Amino acid sequence: MKVGAVIITMGNRPEELRALLDSVAKQDGDPVEVVVVGNGSPVPEVPEGVRTVELPENLGIPGGRNVGIEAFGPGGGDGTDVDILLFLDDDGLLARTDTAELCRQAFAADPELGIISFRIADPETGVTQRRHVPRLRASDPMRSSRVTTFLGGANAVRTKVFAEVGALPGEFFYAHEETDLAWRALNAGWMIDYRSDMVLFHPTTAPSRHAVYHRMVARNRVWLARRNLPALLVPVYLGVWLLLTLARRPSGAALKAWFGGFREGWASSCGPRRPMKWRTVWRLTRLGRPPII
């Protein structure tokens, strides 16, 4: 199975990007084809053979990754150059040289497997943050399992998934775009695995470092529900997240931004609505995360 990699960059981390590209080049087996997308910025100098695309404006994380997908062929699937696409943060680093080969083996062994979520670990401490384990029972990051979502900057996707369910939701710009794709993939019959042995080194960070974090998290949470959930579950899902947000006692400024995004999610278009089947709701529940949490 042929493997490609999509990396988006703002051009402000040239040393980290080069280290990541070196780690991709060292992967066992056939070479991994790489596309680096400059998301509203020039692409720093890259090794020979790495393809680059420079966008005139920042399209956000899902929009930039969609451009990378298209660089491998229209929409993925039968028209694409590769069978598997890795999506990697530009300040990450593949910890092992067998990650691409493990992906090939996993997808070849399980025809229902559509997405693999890697384990993210701090390069100095080896610690995996709880929020980087994509399941509710996240206390043991070393346990691999079936999951219901995945990590956006450390994953592998079978290109047939994009051909069947479409690309990432570009209008989200930042936050929850992975869960939107995950729910659509699960609804189409694909499965998602979290693999602790596929590791991306990445410095420990807080998601709230982004200025738009609270507004977009809330807006996109509403969009996610409106686009994908059966009507009966939309108020339940959003009600649960409202209570969880209040229980976390954010600052006044953060809460104001959150409620602004929450209102925006209801007042603005969420894109096409394609509610999942109740059979998918049951599948999510059996996997340990019913779509109300």
From TrEMBL:
Record family assignment: Belongs to the glycosyltransferase 2 family.
InterPro entries: Glyco_trans_2-like (IPR001173), Nucleotide-diphossugar_trans (IPR029044)
Ranges where the Glycosyltransferase 2-like domain occurs: 6-162
Keywords tagged on the record: Glycosyltransferase, Transferase
Organism per entry: Streptomyces griseoaurantiacus
Name listed for the protein in its UniProt record: Glycosyltransferase
Enzyme Commission identifier(s): 2.4.-.-
Coiled-coil ranges per UniProt: none
Pathway noted in the entry: Cell wall biogenesis; cell wall polysaccharide biosynthesis
GO molecular function: glycosyltransferase activity
